Amino acid sequence: MVDRKEKDMSIIEQLRKGNIPDVLKKVAELENVHLDHIVSGILEGTIVVPHNNLKTLDKPCAIGKGLRIKVNANIGTSQDHEDIEEELEKLKIAVKYGADAVMDLSTGDKARDTRLQVVKNSPVPVGTVPVYEAFLKAGKHKGTIMRLTADDIFDAIEQHGKDGVDFITVHCGITMESVERMRKQGRLADVVSRGGSLLIEWMVLNEKENPLYQYFDRLLEICKKYEMTISLGDGMRPGAIEDATDRAQIQELIILGELAQYAVENGVQVMIEGPGHVPLDQVETNMKIQKSLCNNAPFYVLGPIVTDVAPGYDHITAAIGGAVAAMSGADFLCYVTPAEHLRLPTVDDVKVGVIASKIAAHAADIAKGIPGAKEWDYRMSKYRKELNWEGMFKECIDEETARKMRGEIEPQNENVCSMCGEFCALKTLNDVFK
Amino acid sequence: MVDRKEKDMSIIEQLRKGNIPDVLKKVAELENVHLDHIVSGILEGTIVVPHNNLKTLDKPCAIGKGLRIKVNANIGTSQDHEDIEEELEKLKIAVKYGADAVMDLSTGDKARDTRLQVVKNSPVPVGTVPVYEAFLKAGKHKGTIMRLTADDIFDAIEQHGKDGVDFITVHCGITMESVERMRKQGRLADVVSRGGSLLIEWMVLNEKENPLYQYFDRLLEICKKYEMTISLGDGMRPGAIEDATDRAQIQELIILGELAQYAVENGVQVMIEGPGHVPLDQVETNMKIQKSLCNNAPFYVLGPIVTDVAPGYDHITAAIGGAVAAMSGADFLCYVTPAEHLRLPTVDDVKVGVIASKIAAHAADIAKGIPGAKEWDYRMSKYRKELNWEGMFKECIDEETARKMRGEIEPQNENVCSMCGEFCALKTLNDVFK
To answer: Which residues are noted in the entry as Zn(2+)-binding (chains A, B) (predicted)?
Structure first.
């Protein structure tokens, strides 16, 4: 361990010394919760505040126990489609419709430029998956991704820290042990995690352990330096309903639980990533087992989507799974857009994806009794009862769309809508009970 | 009771005599369940097969215990927008995307013409709310809906029977008692059921009991004559998250439970309608209490939607609530379109609404272990693993949309999609593990 000046200490280390970093005061205010709640949550590892120490976010947030459910939007290019301006447009619309964080998952040649622009323009925390870039570079400069070294991976992670990234997904639970368990049980869809599959390819062909697991301390040092929150990736997440909650998935989760505890002990904030494709009756179980195995670390889930058969509508399959997950323990929902399983999302897919996830998150906030949640619905329904359309529009999760739709078939009586026309039940009873 | 020839007996009466109507054999085959399951379910009142005896449906279905979750699509005009052709287009698209039943809720001047056309063209059971037409006629011919008589209501119901309607919503649980309980507790949004609000207006201004409750035997006689299944409407369903699961709603449900038992005893098939606006943590409770109070009668829910704040996206709020409801006991999901709370649905809204509800229903079928459900997901994921796009498209809930989306950003390698491009995890592991 290098000696650190106090200002270089991580948030957890500062809190242990009794110092409260300013960012936490700002977050407590934005979250409308008591500062003590945030502080004790970070110290016990049940709350994270992803915030790279090289910059200041306009809209930082806290993720975890007792807090409003947060939503992440994935953006970024692939080799098949690279347009930085479009990604910045996606960032803008994601934030407009309420994304609490974004992940830039770019894998194209302009990956770093995209990342720098996203970090520069994002008011919310930015996450990345540095291993993509490490593999990309190895493939480009060394002829094959197989020649990637542990140094290449950690160099990429350090670069992301320097570039101002707030949280990184690292697939540390892809180990010889979890891969072996997967192969032993067998799976319909093997691995659907990009980072996970590349690491497995590297491990199998080189017959070596995953450097992100083997040199976990090195990872912690870099993350501490830049105050990057670790998001322990679930490379083994099921990619098919058939594979849900199998031994590979839970084996990886056990390993992630161990690593999470070790990370917090060593002063680094950490959250756990979760599935994936999960049948609805297994969603709650998946949330409870994560809390149990990972000391209640914040749980960041992708979806989960509750059926495989709805490409084009996976924002809906994910909203179903996400709402139930968030009600049962998930803290952070990664959106899924209608385009998942088909192509990169467009700007409009990003908008729809964020809104669907926000609906799931808000439904869970109401269910959990998060202060302020059901009050939003109260205001909306009060305006509805009063047939106050301007009031209603302003409370809508997407005001523009609601205004546009109502205008498309105009009612003869401006107080009602064309659904029931004169037979509007609210109007009828307002007259009767007035 | 009039004497009935055997052929005039209701399905329940025939089953009690040991005769099995042909329609049930057809339904058992379509449902892929043993005929005994359907027969015993109908006899004990846990399954209904809505099927007017004046016609033969191409796609009849059974709704209830142990069966695949069914989906209903509401179509129909209002006074503000009347176009029969458009409604028939909605019928067509609803059936194409998997609606198991439709309800024609027309309230315009052409209500009967619309109904006749819908019944004529629908391969699936058609439901209606006859009381709309009764009130509409009273308003038109008697100057005010207040002059409506019990005869007017039962004449309308008889007409719907003659017109070939398979199931009718009747708000029999709107009684002096339940209305009083509602007024005593108070509500944010009072009543949002059109039929319910009109009946309350009539009851309050005339100081009379609801004829649908008072003369329930008369209702049963008509329904038996045409083998119309009764759908006991929930006029007291909450229209705001704030009002969910209150005393008025449960009081009505108690009354509906009594009436349902009496209907089955008297040879008429019956299901119960349910909410509405329900916070996610109360959805399961609502399903369990219905089963308990109503002798496990089939439960037909509208949504439920899990937040009030998302007009324009209520197919999603309803898919969340519907999936959880169906997993917890609901048997029949009434779709909600994006346009709910804003205007009449367009043809495209109907399509999206049906698909969202089918996703919810299918997610519940998987969760409940309904035979054949997860096999669909298995096929999809097997094709996905094989990167067999033609196979995948054919298993998609909406093949056209999936094909269109994938084509919008073409991948360089035709085996993958533009989401991950060359970094496709499935492709990577297919190469490693081949």
So the answer is: 277, 341
